[in-house]
Amino acid sequence: MNGKVFYIVELDKELWKDFMLHFRWSSNGFYKVSISQTENGWTVELKLKRSERPVFKDYQKPLWQKWMDEESDDGARIFGVEIDGRIVGWMTIGMESWNNRLRVHELLVLERYRGMGLGTMLLDKAKQVARRNRCRVIVLETQSNNVGAIEFYRKQGFELGGFDTTAYHDDDIERNEVRIEMVCKDF
Question: Considering the entire predicted model, what is its pTM?
Answer without folding.
Answer: 0.93
